[in-house]
Every structure is written in C-alpha cells, then in structure tokens.
Amino acid sequence: MWQAVIDPIAFTLGPLNVHWYGVIMGTAAFLGLILAVREGERRGLDSETILDMMLWILPSAIIGARLYYVLFEWEYYAMHPEDIVAVWKGGLAIHGGLIVAFLVGYIFVKKRNIPFLQIADILIPSVILGQAIGRWGNFINQEAHGGEVSRSFLEGLHLPNWIIDQMNIQGVYYHPTFLYESLWNLVGFGLLLFIRSRNPRRGEVLFSYMIWYSLGRFFIEGLRTDSLTFTGPDWLAQVMEGLWSPMLFLFDPGLMDEGNVRIAQLMSLILALIGVFFIIWRRATGKATVSYRGEVVTEATEIPQQADVVEGPEEKAEETVDKTADGQEESAAEATESEETAGEDGKKEGKSEA
C-alpha cells in the first residue's frame, strides 16, 4: 500500500529551506499574541506593553526550551555541536521554555509596575493554545510519539489516513501522542477561558494551567519512547510508576532507553502540586483578595512626582476626612468674615439714616 509521508520542508526560498516545524511554531506564536493583545486591551493594558513583553519572552522561551533539551541530551550534542542550533529538527523541551519565560516575564513586569499574576492570567491561555498547535510540528517531524501500535489500533481511533500514514515510521506504527496532548491542551484552552470568564481570584488562571497541563502531560509522557530521562532513586521511580499505573488498563508504557525517571513526568508532578498549593494557600491566608478583573497598574497610570505606593483604603479615608475638615474650616471662616462685614455695613447705614 502506498503511503504518503509529509515532507518536513514546507517550501524553499533560494538556498533557504523553510520547515513546517518553524511555520507551525510561528503560527502558534502569532495566534497566541493576537489573543493576548486583545485580552490585555480589555483589561486596560496597552498593546505596546504586550508586544514589548513578547519580544523578550518568545525568544527567551525558545532559547530556554532548546538549552533544556540539549542539556539532557548532551552526550549526543557534544558529538554533534552543529545540531545545537538546529531547532527546526525538533528538540524543544516545553518545561525549559516555561521556566525561562517565567523568569524573563517576571523581571519585565516588575520593571513596568504591572501586577505579575494578572498579566500571567492574561497570557497563559495563549501559552496552552500555542502548545496545542505546536504539537503538530512534532507530527510533521515524526517525533514525540509513543510506543509501537498496529494500524488497526489507529484506525480504531477513527483517524484520517494522512495521520495514520505519518505515524508509520520505517514500517512501524506508533502511538500519536502528539495528538493526545494537542487535544488535551485544546480542551485546556477552553477550560481556562471559562475559568477566566468567571472572574476568579488573581493568579488562579495561571495555577489552573499548571494543574491541567501537568496532569495531561504526566500521563501522556508515560506512553512516549523518546522521553528525557535520568537515573533517580528507586523510591522515586516507584512513585512515578505507581501514579501512572491506572493507564495500564488502557495502554502499555513506552520504553525508556536509559534511566528510570522521566524528567517531564517529574516536572509535571512538581508543577501540578505547586498550582494546587498556591490556590489553597492564597485563599486560606487571605492573600487571594484581588479578582482577575481588578485594575492593571502600569507606568502610564502612575501619578507624577508620587511614590510608587498604592494607597490603601485607610489612607484614602484619612485623606478624605482631612480634605472635608479643611473644607469645613474654610467655610466657617468665610461665614464669620461675611457676618463681620454685614455688621459694619449695618452701622454705616444707621449713621447715614440718622
């Protein structure tokens, strides 16, 4: 049977080959940027601020994702240093990109005096949408797949032939884990938009993303055969296996060439626990008092020649009382002055009539 395999090169411009991987990742970034800009404007954040932030975050995220991957695959890249910059061949670890983007974004918003948790809530749906789209770059490159399956298994998922054929790598069919994660992230995108529409406490859209994405990534990662791994203590490996064990009712786990702990699974577990912790802790301690739709404070909204301190309700109340008292004193003084003037005029009029 003839099988069509998608060429990873989308088109050629002279000596330059433009890969589908780059086209798909660029499309994901563009759509995410549009979504973030529109939501930012609705929340009172000008588009230039979002664009400036993206100019820092996007390149940083790509660099961080690549360095993270290269670090854990250093044995190969030490022998092939020319491939370190070949991102079009794949090899972007999302956790590395998230870590670097988080740090760069935090520094950026602090310098611009923007509430970090609110800007994170604005941007994070764009992130998971970008992840949903970006997984199709892995599909084109025939990477990030799971273990071996039969063609009948893929047909049983009611997949179109062009997906089934692309999952045939050198005569062997594999789990389309790219598709599982793409669909999971697409559902997560809708879920985050719904949560945000309910005007949650500030930061809870971000924490919900950490929980949702990590939950799906943890279980899907266990199906893959190309996971970044390391050799950890036996107890940690057993914990990972135990948490993933419900999947055994459906699928066999993907084989690991070396190591006993999948790095992406461990990172997913940590991020999910962090998300749960912060939602509970912030609510329990009363720190989650500001809603998502609260005002965005930026450089443009600062009052000139004043300290970078937002007045609390008590300070504003005191200022109002002071102004009211000053106004009452001025009114009383004006009334007294008017009475004295009226009395003098009356005396003068009396003398004239006499």
From TrEMBL:
<feature type="transmembrane region" description="Helical">
    <location>
        <begin position="263"/>
        <end position="281"/>
    </location>
</feature>
<keyword id="KW-0472">Membrane</keyword>
<protein>
    <recommendedName>
        <fullName>Phosphatidylglycerol--prolipoprotein diacylglyceryl transferase</fullName>
        <ecNumber>2.5.1.145</ecNumber>
    </recommendedName>
</protein>
<feature type="transmembrane region" description="Helical">
    <location>
        <begin position="49"/>
        <end position="72"/>
    </location>
</feature>
<feature type="compositionally biased region" description="Basic and acidic residues">
    <location>
        <begin position="344"/>
        <end position="354"/>
    </location>
</feature>
<feature type="transmembrane region" description="Helical">
    <location>
        <begin position="20"/>
        <end position="37"/>
    </location>
</feature>
<feature type="transmembrane region" description="Helical">
    <location>
        <begin position="92"/>
        <end position="109"/>
    </location>
</feature>
<dbReference type="InterPro" id="IPR001640">
    <property type="entry name" value="Lgt"/>
</dbReference>
<comment type="function">
    <text>Catalyzes the transfer of the diacylglyceryl group from phosphatidylglycerol to the sulfhydryl group of the N-terminal cysteine of a prolipoprotein, the first step in the formation of mature lipoproteins.</text>
</comment>
<comment type="similarity">
    <text>Belongs to the Lgt family.</text>
</comment>
<keyword id="KW-1003">Cell membrane</keyword>
<feature type="compositionally biased region" description="Acidic residues">
    <location>
        <begin position="327"/>
        <end position="343"/>
    </location>
</feature>
<dbReference type="Pfam" id="PF01790">
    <property type="entry name" value="LGT"/>
</dbReference>
<keyword id="KW-1133">Transmembrane helix</keyword>
<dbReference type="GO" id="GO:0008961">
    <property type="term" value="F:phosphatidylglycerol-prolipoprotein diacylglyceryl transferase activity"/>
</dbReference>
<feature type="binding site">
    <location>
        <position position="135"/>
    </location>
    <ligand>
        <name>a 1,2-diacyl-sn-glycero-3-phospho-(1'-sn-glycerol)</name>
    </ligand>
</feature>
<feature type="transmembrane region" description="Helical">
    <location>
        <begin position="206"/>
        <end position="223"/>
    </location>
</feature>
<keyword id="KW-0808">Transferase</keyword>
<feature type="compositionally biased region" description="Basic and acidic residues">
    <location>
        <begin position="313"/>
        <end position="326"/>
    </location>
</feature>
<comment type="pathway">
    <text>Protein modification; lipoprotein biosynthesis (diacylglyceryl transfer).</text>
</comment>
<keyword id="KW-0812">Transmembrane</keyword>
<feature type="region of interest" description="Disordered">
    <location>
        <begin position="303"/>
        <end position="354"/>
    </location>
</feature>
